[in-house]
Structures are given as structure tokens and as C-alpha cells.
Amino acid sequence: MTSASVVGGSGFTGGELLRLLAGHPEFEIQQTTSREYANKTVGSVHPNLRGLDLRFVAPDSLDPVDVLFVCVPHGVTMEHIAEYRDLADTVVDLSADFRLPDAELYDTWYDGHVAPEHLADAEYALPELNRENLPGADLIASGGCNATSTMLGLLPLVEAGLLTPDDRVVADVKVGSSEGGAGGGVASSHPERSGVVRPYAPTTHRHEAEIEAYLDLQVSFTVHAVEMIRGSAATCHVYPSELPATKDMWSAFREQYGDEPFVRLVAGGGGVYRYPEPKAVAGSNYAEVGFELDERNDRIVVFSAIDNMMKGSAGQAVHAANVALGFEETAGLEFTGLHPVGSP
Amino acid sequence: MTSASVVGGSGFTGGELLRLLAGHPEFEIQQTTSREYANKTVGSVHPNLRGLDLRFVAPDSLDPVDVLFVCVPHGVTMEHIAEYRDLADTVVDLSADFRLPDAELYDTWYDGHVAPEHLADAEYALPELNRENLPGADLIASGGCNATSTMLGLLPLVEAGLLTPDDRVVADVKVGSSEGGAGGGVASSHPERSGVVRPYAPTTHRHEAEIEAYLDLQVSFTVHAVEMIRGSAATCHVYPSELPATKDMWSAFREQYGDEPFVRLVAGGGGVYRYPEPKAVAGSNYAEVGFELDERNDRIVVFSAIDNMMKGSAGQAVHAANVALGFEETAGLEFTGLHPVGSP
Amino acid sequence: MTSASVVGGSGFTGGELLRLLAGHPEFEIQQTTSREYANKTVGSVHPNLRGLDLRFVAPDSLDPVDVLFVCVPHGVTMEHIAEYRDLADTVVDLSADFRLPDAELYDTWYDGHVAPEHLADAEYALPELNRENLPGADLIASGGCNATSTMLGLLPLVEAGLLTPDDRVVADVKVGSSEGGAGGGVASSHPERSGVVRPYAPTTHRHEAEIEAYLDLQVSFTVHAVEMIRGSAATCHVYPSELPATKDMWSAFREQYGDEPFVRLVAGGGGVYRYPEPKAVAGSNYAEVGFELDERNDRIVVFSAIDNMMKGSAGQAVHAANVALGFEETAGLEFTGLHPVGSP
Amino acid sequence: MTSASVVGGSGFTGGELLRLLAGHPEFEIQQTTSREYANKTVGSVHPNLRGLDLRFVAPDSLDPVDVLFVCVPHGVTMEHIAEYRDLADTVVDLSADFRLPDAELYDTWYDGHVAPEHLADAEYALPELNRENLPGADLIASGGCNATSTMLGLLPLVEAGLLTPDDRVVADVKVGSSEGGAGGGVASSHPERSGVVRPYAPTTHRHEAEIEAYLDLQVSFTVHAVEMIRGSAATCHVYPSELPATKDMWSAFREQYGDEPFVRLVAGGGGVYRYPEPKAVAGSNYAEVGFELDERNDRIVVFSAIDNMMKGSAGQAVHAANVALGFEETAGLEFTGLHPVGSP
């Protein structure tokens, strides 16, 4: 068994990682840290893990371990990255600190980077985008959830040459409340947050940077909070120089994702679930992607949906670790989701 | 008092009209029809109206009346329009039958029109767009809810010349489940409909026709069902030939809506509700509009939010009737909405 | 016009009072206080009131006024009660401070009362229970929301002698998240609070004291948080010494509520809404009550439902003030609620 | 591998069974039937199963199989039971047809039983209640979801002698919309069903019969629909002849459930989740049980929560089949649920 520890195990993504690792055939959980909940059981914070015999330890009690998953706020990982890399052969970071390829871009979108010398070592976690560079990686940066959903939708078009850097792309993203994290606050209190369609990042959302960096596209990005807990659904409105034929679209998506274990192509057909939906993937590591052509407006509409806590963070991190360490790609990630299921 | 009857009073918009008319200082409800619920009390269908002493009558029992509000499915009003106009001096139709200015356009987006000779008489109900033509109108066509939310956002730009017919506009709309009507069905059953972000009209939504007809704009229109009951929120991504200055945007919106009793300009500021939201207008006839400039992408993002049952149908109809008949514009429509309030 | 000020206008009940007073034909809002939001507009906190030209003032800026509505946390009103009564002829308090008839009972259920000399002056606000003592009252204590819903269900049985102090009564109450107030906190954050059926006061809920004091009944009281924002629904399981006949039950309820403007008797019949429901009264000052007899278990099941923000606090306060000041009872409270409407 | 088929695979419990069987280490799915969806993929109805290579077959195409799970409406299984038992060594029925021990009791609560000769062969599925009789059983009747949640809460008290047949017990149950099945209908349409606290079986709910039959208790049973999709939460108000000590309560629960793999005792402690909640078990086969003593009212309040689709039907069925066939009890049922998760 490979030992794994989770820094920041009391947050939402930390808890999701603990859940995944507890059910993973290759990993054994060694430790998880929490400043606030040190000595308490993991189940006292994450009720689904009440059966897990594990208590939080203080952050300064971390022991060496094979793989260290880091689930701390943006800006904190980079302060400790040297220490983390000393402790573990493989560090998988779920913050934004090592997602962008260079410090200059980072400084443009976030505050100044304090450990730029590690950036070149970091591999972007999303296997659908970067699988070939993951085996043996010792620093892995899990992607942003909204960047992940958006890029999964656009990637086939880019790879097939149906979408080029000069083309107009609008990404209108809808996300759940778990993106706000476990902290509370008035805006995320139930009475104020319930039932919203709330623009919370109309422009200059930081995930725009990731998309530009990895897809070489300029995307007009806007994020709305909607009534769900888990989920990131991106609707991309794409204006190519020439509208492709439907069969070329299908080819592009099948070419890109035909062998991907976690991407489902959903476009049309009958029934209730005819396009990608967060509900259909809630709790799972699956992404759904699909499209429709709008000849009237020379537009491709691309839909993609993920569970932001899974494919958008903890699941993506485990998937990347599986690839990095040579495990079965789907190990620990086989859960298919539920039907019916509520605000996912 | 002016007498008013409601054809199709058991549906959602019919019930909303009955509620508004019951509290209106100028109208007196004369009759409401329902094939299915004839002889039953209005309150047996609409629980909020249990205090109303009114029973449904069969459709063939309609008596002459001053104003007839018609809330029947698309295609049904036009079959009976001559009869309705015989019965009432003023007919206000909430279906799509008389929304489009000519039969040719109608036939393109819907099925063939069977009463095209009445189209020229019809006035579009939205006072913010068509107030000057409403006084004395004898056939009024209430606008589509998603067209209404979208047009209210774009109108100031069009009027100020900041947006011209050649500019690219994407309207990404999010709507509640009441748009599906009172009928039920598997896709709208609670387990399947709850918590969705579901593309339900990715392209060629019929409301696109109204927008083109009345704003002279080509809009790439996409509608998503989200978890709420009441609400239509439009996010318009606008690419003008030149990005205006913020102060010119404010001028455009203030010029357009400064005197409008039912439009609130909401853009930025502090607090939880910094942009237009359906929650903030739920149950009311208010629309909220706002915007943000995206210099990085030469984009204007315009937000607008309404209650689809009110500003998007029944409230708009009463507002238009108030203007048509010379009543106080806000009569019967003063309710301001609630805070906090859930899936609106 | 009668002048009215609201102490604590930034909280949920404060905002609801401001909404009601702004639309009230007899009241004119003079001031509203907020320590945190002083000088900000009321609409910046309560988005439905963006149209209201009113700013919060600091608590120490309160001027004399005809009626002072006090919406501060439990324990705070009594510290300032002498000052409040100096400022206004009529004080209506929405906290628990003056709800109980004597200091001893208060001390049993809450902490020590610091202004017991005012208790004898206080009149319980619920008109259905205490109408005869309200005219001219100068200190009015609005009832607890869950006590209100429970008592409205049980009152007819008590008055008709169908329920006596020795009979067993279980009150199983379901409430919305607005009861937790505007403050936020982890337990009330959207991800943790959404979709719950959560026992939050399994035993010894303080509203038990009010019920015992005013109905002279011992009630086993348990409160659950459920997924809604507004609403308190009480299901009372009553075991009388002898099960009454259905017609005697109807007589009891009709006798009690036949002339009440805000209580609707709902029991059986067809349709979707066959029993009292919070949805059916959301946003309104109405209460619904109903019952079913269970001969198999010699049990009466009584249902009652209110909007906790309205009939359960702000609406009840205005209703009581209307009675106290001799206004039309329903003044400012005519809104009937909506259909359909979501998590109310 | 043991072959298994699912009759009625397009419904909610059928889909849940297919999900469980697809991930089960001992079972291999052979067939699933659906009259309406014959020849369509399972994934076209259950979007979480889009990855499953399986199509529905017509009901008359059923082949012999080791285990047959039957998910059809009440009254239908018994019409075909002889045929089903000819086809399979083990039949697990999820309807109510074989839940009650004798035909007379069945006829009292349901319509007349048409295959009473099979009743004596049927074993009640709930392992916590009937584990010793399951091994080798060839007809297994999965329990009712609300009976299951209620009995799991009361069983320890009965077994420990803390609750006797003469004691008063009220079971106030809150359930999700998936209990209504996949059919739709106006009352379960999203606008009408969302946000409810709706009494839907105030008295004489049929699950009362199961509880009486298996626990030898008379329980006053009332069921409310609340806003969630999955979940059954029972609050039992118990009045024993003598209130037990807290330590005796803990002993009773630990004695009963200490070795149970799927029952968690949750009572008090800190954090957000201090009592049993449906959210904490959503998607899993776990039950949570807990209690609080109310000395003031000589009452025990017992809380229990399950996912009605899992522990309340499909999970219970698989659990029972595991026991009947000698598999690991937890096989295929290890999923622990999610945190955070919405209307479960």
C-alpha cells in the first residue's frame, strides 16, 4: 500500500479526498491535519465518514509519507511547498498556487508568487489534457473546477482545429455552493444563498487564466452561483470562422474522448437527460460533454458538466495521482453517481 | 369598476392574474374559466386564493366583459380570437399567438397562424418597449418571459446606440420550473427536475424571434432550466464595435429607465445582492438590470432578472392593461417581493 | 399618519417589518436603526426594498415616535425597555423578553430577567388568543413563531373542551432557515443547511413555555429544521380522553376561527393542497389549520402552518398594532401569498 | 458469479438495484425488464448508468436466473409470483405484496391478496430484524422505507424491554419525493412539490401494519413530504411506563447495533450533525439512529434516518440477498455517502 496524508482535511475538498482515499485499493491514509479540529474524529466534521477510525492532527505533526495531498487556501501551499516536498515523494496540490505555468501569469491574476522556483516542476493534473506528463511527476497541481469544466468542453474543438485562438468564445458557467468552501459567511448563509441565480464573477474570474494558458484561447468567462451544492456546468458559445458539420463535431469529440474512462459524450437522444447535467454526474468523477450547432447564428453551443468536488478537485487529484504512480486510472473512482438525486 | 374575466384560470399564469385582479383597485373579477375544474373554487387549485369567493366556469359560459385576459396554450387563442374580441372591448392575450408582428415571422418560428388578420391590431404589452402604443389598444399581446428579461437588459444599449445590429450578442438565460406550466410530466417531476442545470433550449428558442422583431438584433439565445420555480435571469454577453465608457453605460441605463416604475438599476455596490437576481424580485413586477464591462475581452456583460410569472407574463399583462385603460400604472402591482425568500 | 420606527432593521424580521410598514395605509416609517449598516440604504441589505428611500441610523439616534417596533436579540430589549417606552406610546417587541407572563417562568426557560417590572404591562400579541386585551396596550410582545403555529392548531380544541390539561400532546414542528436569523455561521451555511431534516431542538425548546403559559397545556415539543426559508408547520398528535366526532371537530374550529381574518380551515377536500402547508401561506399573514381523526389510535392529528416571518413575527406584530391602535385589522397585511412558490 | 435480473428496471428502485448490482463483486446482471423502454439502454433512463452496456427487455423475455429482483407496483408481484419463483432460485420482491406475515393482515391494509399460499415462504428482508431467517431464503420481501426507518429507531427499545406494547408511540416521519416513484403527476411536479412540508398520510399509512406485525407495537404513524429527493427520517415520541436512565438507553442501542455494519449511533456530540439526518446517509446503505430523553415530559425522542432508495429498498434488498446467499454482508454496499450533499 502507498501511504497518503491530507493537509487540510476538514474542508470540503479535504473531506472528499479522505473519502476517496479510504475506499482506494492502493492508498492507505496515514494522517490528516486540521488546526481547528485537531484530535477530533474526521467523522465529527464529515458525517459520511463517521465509520472512519481517524482523527485530525495538528499541522505541525505531519510525518513523512509517500503522497501528500494539500487542501489549503490559495497562497498557503506555496509558503510551505519546500517543506511538503521534503516530506513526500509526490505532492498533489489542490489550490491555485501551482496551476499556472509561470510566475508572471500568476502575478497578473493572483498576488505575488512566493515560490516561483517550484513552478517549472508542477504538472497540471487534468489527465484528459496532460496525461503524458503525469507519470512520475512529483508535484501535481489540480485544476480549477470551472476551468476544468470549460476546458473539457472546448478541448475537442481545439484539438480538431475547429476552434482557433482568434475565434470568439463565451463561457457562461453555473456553479454550486460547495465552491465557496466550508467557512460560512452571510452571502453563503442558507436564506441568502438558496434559490439564487447570482452573478458572482461577471468578469476577470481567475480560472480564465488557466484556460488561456492551457488551451491557448481567449475566453470571455462569467460565473453564476445557482441552487446546487455540487456541480460546475459550462455552456460555451463558440463562433468559429466556419461552422463545422455535425459529423465533424462528433468526430472531434469521439477522437478526443473515445478512450477516456471518465468522459461521457451526451448530445441529444431522447429522455429527460439529453445534454450534460451536473445532476447526472453528482458524486462521481465523470464529466459529461455535448454540443449543438446553431446554424442561424453560426454558433457552436458546447455543454459540459462535472461535480466540482470530484472531477473539479478531489477526484481529479486522485485520478492524476493514479496516473502518476502507475495505478489503474479508475482506482478508487468507480462510483457512478445516483439517480434520482437532488441539488447535487 | 372595470369588469375582467380570465380564460384559463387554472394554470399558473391564470392563477397569478386572478391574484392580481383580486387585489386591483380598478378591476372586478367577473368570471374565470377552466374546462377541468368547472364549478370548483379557485382556491382548490390555487391555495393562496382560498379566501376568494370565486368558482371556475366552463369555457362556453363566458359572458361579455370589459377586459378579457386569455391564458391558454399557444395556438388556442388564435382559434377563438374573433369570439373573444366580440365579448370584450379589450383582449389581453398571454400566449405567443399575437406577439410577433406578422404572420410570416410567426410561421417561421411556430406553426401556421390561423387568424393573421388580427395581427396588425395587436400591441406588444411590455410598457418599457411599447408604452406609447398601448393607450386604447384593444388587443394586447403579453411578451414571452425570456424575451422580456433579455430585452430589458439590451434595450438601453440599443436605444443609446451602444449596440447595433451587426454586433455579436449571446443571451444565456436561466429559468424556473413554472415556465413549464401546471401540467406535470416526467421531465418536470420533482425528482428529475430538482437541482438541475439543464439545457432545455440550446438553440432556436422561439423567444429569439421576439427579440429580433422588437430590438432589431440577432441574438444567440440559449435557455437553461435551473433550480427555482419563479424567475428568468438573462446574462447577455455583448461585443460592441467599441467598448463604451462606464459612465456612458450608466447614462444609457438611467436615460432608459430613470422614470420607469418597475425597473431597478443594480450594478455593483456592496452587500450580498450586487447584481440583478431573480430572488430579489420574486413575486413582484419589478425587473432588475445591471452590467459590468470586461475590458480584457471587449465585452459588456448585461444582467437582467424578472419573475417570469409577473414581469414575464401576468404582471406585464396587468401593467399593459393599466396603461391601455388609463389607470395608475402601478395599480395592483405594488408588492415589492420578500427578503429572504427561497427558490423564488 | 401614525409614525413608526424599527429598532434593528437590518435583521430578517426587521426587514419584514419595514416592508409591511412601507405598504401600510396608516403608518409612516420614521427611522430604523442598525449598528452595522448605519447610513446605508435599507435596500442595500433587503434587496426587495431597494425602492425605499430610507437609510439606517445608529441606535443612539432614535427619536420619539408613536410606535416603536423592536427587533433585537433575546435579552437586549429588556435592557432598554424603559428607554423605549419613554420614546414611544406603544412598544411592540419581537423578542422573547416580554412574552412570558411572569419573571419566574422566564428565568426557568431563559436567563434572568432584568426588567421584570414591565412584564405585567405586556400583552401577548397574537390576536386570535388575546384580541380583547390589545386595544390601547402600550407594550406588546409578539409571540414565538413555533409557539404561534402550535397554539393556533390547538386553541380550538382547548376552547371547545376537547383537549384538557391532562391529555397527552406531541408537537412535532418543522421550520425554515430564516428562524436562524441573518447572521450566517457554519451550521446555517448553504452546503450544510440545504436539504436537511435536522432535529435542532429535540427537547426543552423554549417555545414550550409559551404554550404552557397561554394554553395551560403540557406539550411535548420537538423542532426540526427542514429545507425551506420561511415557514413553521406544526403537527400536533393529540390523545384526548375521548375521541370527538368529526362534526364536533369542525364545530370547534369554525367556532374559533369563523370570523378570524387570517386563519383558514383546510382539511381534506381534493387537489394537491389538502392540508395546511407553509407554501400556501408563504409571504402572507395567513395561518392554515386542519385536522384528521385517527380512530385506530384514538388520536387527533392537527396541522397548522404559518410563515414564521409573518404570522410568526412581523405580521403578527403589525396585526397586533392594528388592533391596539384601532386600525382596520387587515391593514397592510392583505397580501395573499403566491402560487406556485418554492421553498417558501 | 451469481446471475441476477431485475424486473421493472426503469423505475427508481429498479435503477438503484441495477447500479448496486453493476458494482457488486458477486453478481452479474443478466437482464432487466421494462415494458415502456424495451430495447432502450438503461442509461437512457438512468443517466448515472450511461456507461452500462445493458438494454431493457420486454417483461415476457425473462430467462431463468439465479436471483430475481422484482420492482413492480404493489399488487403486481403477487399476480406473477409463481412464474417468478419458477424462473429463479431466489426472488427478492421490493413491493408490499409479501411484507406482511399473513393474508388477513394484508387484506386489512391493502386489497385482497391473490397469492396467499406464498406468504408463509416469505422472509422479511431487514437483516437487523430478521438476519437469522435469511440464509437460504427463496422468497424475500424488502420492507417499506418508512417502516424501516421507524423500526430501526424503536427496535433497541423493544428488545431491551424499555418499550412495551401498551406504551404510547408517535412516529412522525418526513420523506423525500423519490417515494412517489418515477411517474410524474401534478402533485409531484416540481412547482407543486418543491419546498413543501405536506402531510400526505396523516393517518392509516400502510407501513403502520408492518411495524405492528414485526415489533408488536401500536404506533401512531404520520408521514410528511418534505423537500428532499432521497430520505426517510422518523422521529418517534415514546412514552414508556418509566423513563429509562441515559446509560440504559445507550446500552440498549449499543447492544442492538454494536455489530451491525450499516447502523450508526449518533446522539449529541458537537458539530453540525449531532443527530441522525438523511443528508448524512444519502446514497448509502447506512442508517443513523439516536435519541434524547425529555424528563420534563417523560418522553424518549428517537431519531432515525435512512436513504429510502437504499436502506429503505434497493440497498436493503441487496443486503438481504447477500445474507441469503452467504456473501459478505457489505458486498456492493460500501459507498459511504457524500459531504456536503444537497437535498439528498
UniProtKB/TrEMBL annotation, chains A, B, C, D:
**Which residues does the Swiss-Prot or TrEMBL record annotate as the active site?**
C145
| Semialdehyde dehydrogenase NAD-binding domain span | 3-137
- Provide the catalytic activity annotation: [amino-group carrier protein]-C-terminal-gamma-(L-glutamyl-5-semialdehyde)-L-glutamate + phosphate + NADP(+) = [amino-group carrier protein]-C-terminal-gamma-(5-phospho-L-glutamyl)-L-glutamate + NADPH + H(+); [amino-group carrier protein]-C-terminal-N-(1-carboxy-5-oxopentan-1-yl)-L-glutamine + phosphate + NADP(+) = [amino-group carrier protein]-C-terminal-N-(1-carboxy-5-phosphooxy-5-oxopentan-1-yl)-L-glutamine + NADPH + H(+)
Q: In which pathway does it act?
A: Amino-acid biosynthesis; L-arginine biosynthesis; Amino-acid biosynthesis; L-lysine biosynthesis via AAA pathway; L-lysine from L-alpha-aminoadipate (Thermus route): step 3/5
Q: Name one GO molecular function term.
A: N-acetyl-gamma-glutamyl-phosphate reductase activity
Q: What class of enzyme is it?
A: oxidoreductase
Q: Where does NADP(+) bind?
A: S10, G11, F12, T13, N308
SUPFAM superfamilies membership? Glyceraldehyde-3-phosphate dehydrogenase-like, C-terminal domain, NAD(P)-binding Rossmann-fold domains
Q: What is its EC number?
A: 1.2.1.103, 1.2.1.106
| Entry-linked CDD domains | AGPR_1_C_LysY (cd23939), AGPR_1_N_LysY (cd24151)
* One term under GO cellular component: cytoplasm
Report the InterPro entries cross-referenced here: AGPR, AGPR_dimerisation_dom, AGPR_type-1, LysY, NAD(P)-bd_dom_sf, Semialdehyde_DH_NAD-bd
Which GO biological-process labels does this protein carry? L-arginine biosynthetic process via ornithine; lysine biosynthetic process via aminoadipic acid
Q: Name one Pfam family in it.
A: Semialdhyde_dhC_1
Going by the UniProt record, its keywords in alphabetical order are:
Amino-acid biosynthesis, Arginine biosynthesis, Cytoplasm, Lysine biosynthesis, NADP, Oxidoreductase
Q: Which HAMAP family match?
A: ArgC_type1, LysY
Its biological purpose? Involved in both the arginine and lysine biosynthetic pathways.
Provide the family line. Answer: Belongs to the NAGSA dehydrogenase family. Type 1 subfamily. LysY sub-subfamily.
Q: What name does the UniProt record give this protein?
A: Putative [LysW]-L-2-aminoadipate/[LysW]-L-glutamate phosphate reductase
Organism the protein comes from: Halarchaeum grantii
Tell me the lineage of the source organism: Archaea, Methanobacteriati, Methanobacteriota, Stenosarchaea group, Halobacteria
